[in-house]
Design goal:
Blueprint lengths: L12 H8 L13 E3 L11 E3 L7 E2 L4 E4 L3 E7 L5 E4 L24 H4 L4 H4 L5 E16 L5 E14 L5 H5 L15 E9 L5 E9 L9 H49 L1
Antiparallel strand pairs: 1-2, 2-3, 4-7, 4-9, 5-6, 5-7, 7-8, 9-10
């Protein structure tokens, strides 16, 4: 591997690896999301595509994904599909997922506590989920809704998945990652498993076939991309941390004011 020119942030490859949660262990233009098609209007159901909003190309096979990072993030989405709150991007469940509204995990209880609640009590947490957020590059040949063939090559993207799709990346890739190898040292071939829920509706589970035996050499373009992704994650977490501190202080002031009012009401009574 040739010697790499460090970026202005001065991060070494090992620094980047640790920051991205990408090493094996025992604010720029919007980056599109990599997703699976659920409407069937513009492409095959379950096909992979980039949410670009225009010239979206769909592919059912031959999709290659090169991951650069691996994080966990709690997100709260409202009924109108607007983001209400989100937590820090954390590398594992031992880290505290502080969020923008001054709470942790967007207010969601731990799983063991959540399943003890009845249906009505759980409704309070509708729209809050734990996501696996993976940034990387995707390559494939797909077709648009009007039949045009488009080649996607090393397109930066974000894979943000929850519930049934939260676990496969861990089980298929992270758990099997050879010692000394990083996520960006190889590509994974994507596939899907079609399942049906109790209501008869189909849903899809994404799977990854990591190509450990076909390593990709580190080059300057890859290093620069990793450095950029690291900066994006650091910047996002810095903003969320600042919002958390401001909201936490405000929440503390509000609680203190409420206690004072309660005390005064008690004295009057």
């Amino acid at each position: 591997m040739t010697e790499l020119a460090l970026q202005e942030n001065g991060l070494s490859l090992s620094d980047i690896s640790a920051e991205l949660g990408a090493a094996s262990t025992s604010t720029g233009p919007s980056i599109p999301n990599l997703a699976m098609n659920y409407d069937g209007e513009n492409g095959p159901m379950g096909a992979f595509y980039l949410k670009t909003g225009q010239d979206q190309a769909y592919a059912t096979e031959g999709v290659k994904f090169r991951a650069f990072s691996n994080h966990i993030q709690y997100q709260h989405w409202g009924d109108d599909n607007t983001l209400v709150n989100k937590s820090l991007l954390i590398k594992n469940g031992r880290e505290e997922a502080r969020d923008q509204l001054g709470t942790v995990n967007c207010g969601m209880p731990e799983y063991d506590d959540l399943i003890q609640l009845d249906k009505k009590q759980r409704e309070k947490y509708d729209g809050i989920d734990k996501f696996r957020v993976v940034r990387g590059l995707v390559s494939y040949i797909g077709k648009t809704a009007d039949g045009r063939e488009i080649t996607i090559e090393n397109q930066p993207c974000v894979l943000s998945v929850k519930r049934k799709n939260y676990g496969p990346f861990w089980h298929d890739v992270i758990k099997k990652l050879p010692q000394g190898m990083n996520l960006w040292d190889f590509e994974s071939i994507l596939s899907k498993d079609t399942q049906t829920n109790v209501h008869g509706k189909k849903y899809y589970i994404m799977h990854f076939a990591p190509q450990f035996g076909s390593p990709i050499e580190m080059d300057q373009i890859t290093y620069d991309s990793l450095s950029h992704v690291t900066s994006l994650i650091t910047s996002e977490n810095r903003k969320i941390e600042e919002a958390y501190k401001n909201a936490w202080l405000q929440n503390s002031k509000d609680e203190q004011s409420d206690r004072i009012v309660d005390t005064l009401d008690s004295d009057v009574a």
